[in-house]
Amino acid sequence: MPHKLAVKLGGWLGRLVWLVSWRKVDTCESRCVKALGVGVTIARKIILKSFINLGMSIAEFVRLELIKDNLNNLIIEVENLEVVNEALARGKGVIFMLAHMGNWELCGEFMTLKGYKLAAIYKPQNNSLGAEDFIKSQREDAAGLELIEAHSLNLREIFRALKANKILCVLQDLDARKRGVDINFMGMPASCYDGIIKIYNKLGSPIIPALCLRDTKDFTKHKIIFGEIISDSNNFGQDVSAALDACNNIIAGWIRQWPEQWMWNLDRWESKLRVRKSKQK
């Protein structure tokens, strides 16, 4: 199947899921209204586009092996790659701070194909019908990532990867539940993982914001953007909460600028909002 048709079908699948998942969609719209301060009509359009983007991203993920040879044509621009090279030259490894924006999986595949060595922290999924096996295969074999399972016993593996001057990929917009630090994210209480701050304080590995955005004119094309090194700011990491605020403010800025490319069905605020509701009862 031609790649453009496959991605387009993925988008239609996302639209179909949006259509039938009305309860989930209502929750996403409510989050969008509160986080962005927009009306319901605008939020509904944003959430629909978000579901379509997710469907297209899934189609691309399934085709990672097939699009390897054409990835240079699909990634039409890479902004600030020199920042990554400068950070790697320090010899302490690099931490990519990612979010569920655009298609984050393509960023990893592109970088490995360019010769960069990447490791990614991941949370195992339910393996019913072999889903987990397929996801691992795509990330390890097709995208070329080294996978490190997300639990405390794997700190040794994380340190090993960074000491080998690899790039560690971390999704920083997940709900950390009871294990996290309380923060305010886009006007609502949230729980945030503080692992990248602890790792930075231990090893001094530079932290770089990274995202892969879908082009608004051609949905098969993407742009990779690397921000400046967050951890180079004065006294970064001495106050963990302040450092997390700096990281989350960057992600919040991405979401405000490209709201339709963030995964709004991600339960970013779930644990804190659930606690508040139970207390109100």
Describe the 3D structure.
The chain has eleven helices and nine strands. The chain has helices at residues 3-20, 22-36, 40-62, 71-74, 81-88, 104-113, 131-142, 155-163, 195-203, 240-257, 270-280, and strands at residues 75-79, 94-98, 118-122, 146-149, 167-171, 181-185, 188-192, 207-214, 222-226. The strands form two sheets. Strands 1-9-8-2-5-3-4 form a seven-stranded mixed β-sheet, with helices on both faces. Helix 2 crosses helix 3 (40-62). It is globular, with a radius of gyration of 19 Å. The relative contact order is 0.16.
Tell me the count of domains: 1
| Structural class by helix and strand composition | alpha/beta
In whole angstroms, the N-to-C terminal distance is 53 Å
In total, the number of strands is 9
Q: Provide the CATH topology.
A: Glycerol-3-phosphate (1)-acyltransferase
Mean pLDDT: 92
**If strands are numbered along the chain, what order do they take across the biggest sheet?**
1-9-8-2-5-3-4
Range of helix content: 40-55%
* CATH class categorisation: Alpha Beta
Order of helices and strands: HHHHEHEHEHEHEEEHEEHH
The name of the CATH architecture is: 3-Layer(aba) Sandwich
Gyration radius, to the nearest Å?
Answer: 19 Å
Tell me what portion of residues adopts beta-strand conformation: 15-25%
- Stretches where pLDDT falls below 50 for ≥5 residues? none
The total count of helices amounts to 11
Please give the oligomerization state of what you see. Answer: single chain
Shape: globular
